[in-house]
Every structure is written in C-alpha cells, then in structure tokens.
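so i finally got all the pieces together for this one. its four components total, 618 residues if u count the protein bits. some of the lines might not be protein, just check the labels. i wanna see the whole assembly predicted at once instead of chain by chain like last time, that was a mess tbh
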Amino acid sequence: MAGSLQDIRLFVAAYEERSFTAAAQRENATQSGVSQHIRKLEERFRLSLFSRDKGRVCPTPAGDSYYRACLDVLRAHDAATKAVQGFVGGLEGELVVGLMPTMTRCVLAPALARFTEAHPNAAIRVVEGYSAALTQHVQAAELDFAIVPGTAGIAGVKSRLFTRTPEVLVASVRHAGRRNGEPVRTRELGPLRLVVPSRANTRRLSIESYFASNGIAIERLLELDAMLGTLDLVGRSEWVAVLPGIMMAADPEPGMHVINPLADPPLTLDLVLIEPARRILSPLASAFLGLLQEEAARVNARWDVPRPG
Amino acid sequence: MAGSLQDIRLFVAAYEERSFTAAAQRENATQSGVSQHIRKLEERFRLSLFSRDKGRVCPTPAGDSYYRACLDVLRAHDAATKAVQGFVGGLEGELVVGLMPTMTRCVLAPALARFTEAHPNAAIRVVEGYSAALTQHVQAAELDFAIVPGTAGIAGVKSRLFTRTPEVLVASVRHAGRRNGEPVRTRELGPLRLVVPSRANTRRLSIESYFASNGIAIERLLELDAMLGTLDLVGRSEWVAVLPGIMMAADPEPGMHVINPLADPPLTLDLVLIEPARRILSPLASAFLGLLQEEAARVNARWDVPRPG
DNA sequence: TTCGCGCGATTACGAATTCCGATGACCGCG
DNA sequence: CGCGGTCATCGGAATTCGTAATCGCGCGAA
C-alpha cells in the first residue's frame, strides 16, 4: 500500500539508465525486480511511468514529473542519514549536574563546549544552585553529581575534593589603588566596606574568621546573596568583596574590576564533588567531570603566585 | 542495509507520540513492529535515537536531528505522490501526427492545449510538413495520422475528408480597398500580383485553374513556398495571396492584412485525414483528431457567409 | 525472409524480511 | 505487593523480495 524507498531507488535508476536491465545492475538487483517494483508503482498510481513499446523504455510525462520529485526524496533521505551520522562517536546517555555560580561563571562554558563536541548524542542538563539545594538534590539522586563548597559529611552523599581555589579580593578599578592580578598583603588593607554572602552560605564563616584573625578592619558589612548584584555593586563603588578566584578568571566587563589574590596568609576555598552514595558515576558523568576539572585547573592557574627562587 | 520509508514513518510517529504503542496505533502497526524498526535504525546508525529509561521514550539529540530530517523525507515523498497524481485520468500512450502549416497556424494550438489538459500522461509529437513528406511518413506508419490537402488515393494510406475550408484572398490593409472579412466577388478583382506556392503543392493547380476559369487577370505571379514569407510580403506590398481560410482566422499581427473569402463562385480547399492503411486509429489519436476537428469547425465558422433569407 | 540477439514481461519458487501475538522485564502508582 | 502501563524479545506466520527460467517482441544481420 505505502511506498517504499526501494521503489523510488529502482525507478530513478531505470529512468536515468533508460533500461531496466542497466538499472538492475546499478542497484545490485535484477531486471525482474526492477520490473516488479515499477509495475507496483504504476498499479498504485493507476498510470504508466514508462512507455515500453518498441523495445525501448522511455518515460511518460508522469514519469518525468515523478522522477524529479523522487530526486528530492532521495536527496532528503541522504540528508537525513548524514545528519544523524554527525552524532556518532562519544558516549550516550543523560546527565544532570548541579553547579554553584562559582563554577558556572568561568569554568562551565568551556567544559560544556568540549563536552557537547566530544559526546554529541549525550543529553546534559546543568542546574545552578547553592550548596544546600544542590546537596538535597544529590541526596535524592536527582543529580549525577554536584560541585559545592566543602562541607561536613552528609548521609547518603559521597564527597571528595574537586579543586582548591584561592579567594581573591575584588574591588572597583576606580577606587582601588592596586594593580590588577598581583597578590595583596593583608596588612596593606585599610578599613574595608565588605560585601559578604548571607550566613546560610558556607563561605561567610571562613571569610569573617579570616578577616578577624588577620586583624583587618571592616568599615562596613553588606549582606548580599546575589552574585551578579555583588559584582555590579563592587564595580561601581568602594565596596569590595571576597570571591573564589575560579570565578574571577575572566571579567565579562574588562577593566571594571581589580582582582587581587589574598596573600600572607592566603585564603582558599575548597570545592568538593558530591554524588549520591548509592550510585557510581556514569561514564558520561566521569567524562564531564574530567572536563570540568581540567577547565578548573586551567582557570586556577591564573592565580598561581610565582614562587620566589 | 538501505533504509526504508516504513522505518522513517514509524520513527516519526514514535517521535511525535513519544510512545511506541501510540505510534503503532497511529500507523496501523504493532508496538512490536515499531520497536523492531527503531532498533534497526539505531543499529544501522550505531547510536540511539531514543532514551528509554524511566518508562518513557524521549529522543536523544541525534533523534531530534533525525526527526527534522525525516520530516523532509516524508514531505518530499508526499510531494512526489501528489505530483504524479496530477496525471491520472485521460488516455495514455504516444502519438505522432503530421500537420501542414495550414493546420498549425490557427487550429493546432487550441487543440493541443485541450489535449494535454485532458490527457496529461499522453506523449504527443507534432511534425509540420507539406503533403508529400507527410504522406510518405504515414505510408511508413511513422505517423498516427496526418492532415494534408485532398489528393488521389495512395497505396498503404487510408484517407477521408477532414474538413473543407474556403480559400480567402489575403492582401495588405494599406493597398486593398476592401473591408476585412466580407466576401469578394471575382469580377470585382482587378489585375493581381499573386503569390502562389510551387507546383509541388497541390493547391497550386486549383488556384491557377480558379483564376483562369473565372477570367481574372493576373498581372504577375510569384512562386513562394515559405508561408511566413508569403504573409509578410503580402502584408507589406501590393502582392496578394490565396490561402486556406482555416489558417487566417486569427491574424497574429492584427490590422496588417485584409482577408476576404472568395465568393461567386467560392473556392474551397478539402483537407483530408490520412492514416496508415494497416492500422486503426488509436484511442489517443481519435481523441486528438476529434479536438482538431472541433477547433477546425470553430475556425471555419469565421468565414461562414450569412445566407440570404 | 529468417535467424539470432537484446530487452522487458511474466511466472514460480526459495530466501529474506517484516509483521504479529505472546511473553517478560521494568517502572510508577495505589 | 499487585496493577496497569511501558518497551524488549522471541518464535512463527505472512508478506515481500530476489532469482532463475521462459516467453514475446523488435531490431539488425545474414
């Protein structure tokens, strides 16, 4: 009842060769097969595609028209095949990972680009969130894994160090008297207007204790959980913030911020990988994790202090 | 090895329904069949088109891409089917007819238009020629039929009257003092500069004898076998010609010629249909002949003289 | 004219494919 | 834990497909 591609292939061959026999050879079939297929078409359409008299086969007007249309079909089929071939190679499957904004700002994009390139037929979904929400999702095994700030162990969640990144001081280029990139000594810091995350955020505690134990005066404290808002405020005012270096490697608005790693002593942030304890990382998850780790290392290298000697 | 349209149909249905079972119902197949077809595709491409986990099928990126390409294939196939459906109805076959210029000037075009409309899948070829050549081709059975001026019987050729058309006097609108269309009496004709066909043409004899037996003076005689040239010459000079009315019903350059049927007595030309004696007219040939005859009658009516009373 | 020769149509039969129905595994839900 | 839904799988039936052999026809050579 319904047409098949073989009909069309053989018809096209017969049309182009002007011979059933030649068409059969070209298409690795037999003259009889070609004849049958074309007869099937003619019966379905209730009209003849070829005129067979005088020993030669030559197309009728309907055959001419059908031939041109059939070329489109074959071209489309070829295109479909080629389209899908672009997805071969690489791993397959689905992947959902949770990342905190610290990771999504600089590291995610290049890792994602390499991942989709290497595994075109993998479906990946990234959810951005803070540690509490991400940990919860990992517990529920709704995420293959997540990257969060180092925390205490949690039931049902397996964790290990993902990377360590220096915390950096971020200030406006117009108000800070420092050169971008060079380490800043704590004793050189005057009284600061400091933007910090809320107490729900793990980093808040370490930042406060760092400033306290190094005797740095804090002129004012502003609690802000919005990362984009923090960066904007810092860029336009005398407020400064302490942020993970891994997210400040590339400034989307160059020249707006001055970024200086905290040195003497340094303050670092540990990012840990958490995954559902009951599962093991899928090959796809491992692949993406590897890429994330490579990109994280590349970005962290930006803040490597040249050692003396 | 090679893809089939059924693969594509079922894949598309499964993609759109997001369910093998629903796809099977839609395509009048079984869930098992759908599953097998899609597995076949996936094995050929060596990648998965659907992700089957958690009880639902959802397309992979490759599946998405393949789906879009498959729509093009199905559209193209539909277009091919519809294209050929435009040719159903009417007769089929091949037809070669021979016509003299007398027929091709006014009668052929409308007959051809109606013919191709009514029999879209028929292949028709018209060869233009003069009676000798056409008769020869009919003898050789290379033509289904031909229309030629009435002649004596010829071996191997069956003939019968096709139509009778009045001969008309054609002159330049600038040199003739007559109104277009009205009959001209022989005695009103002064000495003429007359263009005639060569002696090979059947009409030459009848034209000469007509002028002789009606005592019309011929100032000069010009032998011209080129029909287009004759018309052009007549349109631009004092030369006149006698031509079959059936070919002068529509003047391609209106206002150039004055055309007057010869009356008192009238001169007419008999056109006869000739066909190979050993064959009978194919249905296609009959159909075209009928149309030619209708159009000839319509054109001849242009010269009907309103009868008194 | 007659005789091959080439080409397509037709037929019958064996092979391959497709299709179907039943069964099994899996998941979410009650 | 059973229930209803899904898809995968399997074996056999039905269909399609390819093949070989044969026939008819037109053409060209003898």
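Chain B has a mean pLDDT of 87.
The first strand of chain B starts at residue 50 and ends at 51.
anyway lmk what u think
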